Amino acid sequence: MKIHYSSLPGAESTQILMPIVPIVLINGEYNTPVYALVDSGAVGGVISTVIADDLHINWKNIPPRMGFSVGGNFRFHSVKLEAEIFDHHFPLKINVVEGISAFKCIVGQKDLFQRAKVIFEAYKNQFELIFREYN
Amino acid sequence: MKFSKIDFVKLLKGYKTGWVGISSDHKKVVAWGKTLKQVREKSKKIEDRIYFFPSGESYSNFVG
Q1: ipTM score of complex
Q2: Measured by CB atoms within 10 angstroms of the end CB, which terminus of chain B is less buried, N or C?
Q3: pTM
Q4: To the nearest whole angstrom, how far is the Cα of A49 from the nearest Cα of chain B?
Q5: Are B59 and A53 in contact (CB < 8 Å)?
Q6: Domain count, chain A
Q7: Where in chain B are the domains?
Q8: CB–CB of A102 and B62 under 8 A?
Q9: Which residues of chain B lie closer than 8 angstroms to A24, CB-CB?
Q10: What is the CATH number of the domain that holds A110?
Q11: Domain span holding position A119
């Protein structure tokens, strides 16, 4: 599946083109359809506490761990969910991050990239997801 | 098969805060709320799958 980069609001009249994919996060009987940034630089996926609350994840009871990014340190709580992207279902271990800004859902190397071949063609403003076939 | 561009600039025009609910074809905003909880509540009766997205963010200086 080839996916055109999405345009996102930026400062003033500028617009930003980013690789975004619709994703349904599933926690048992609860599901939250959102949009995720496909980030090859992210080791693991993250969601905001707001999305975690919507999924009825009791993240405050999960012991926090410390992570770090280019912007500094953050607290996160690891959870196991299910995900659906373009009719492909897969288990998703993701981190609930406190105080996350801008993107509220990001998928990275340990999740989507394990399930699909991801080809970025930024010069064409598109990327491609080729999901692995399982017998 | 190519999945078309989702134009969040167009979709989020006029929504400076809160969260929006977006139709399953990703072409129109069908609900708005101050919080995700509120927009989910407002879109409860809509039978279509609704995708949720924050409407008050600026992405221009994001580094991931």
Answers
A1: 0.93
A2: N
A3: 0.93
A4: 11
A5: no
A6: 1
A7: 17-54
A8: yes
A9: 49
A10: 2.40.70.10
A11: 2-131
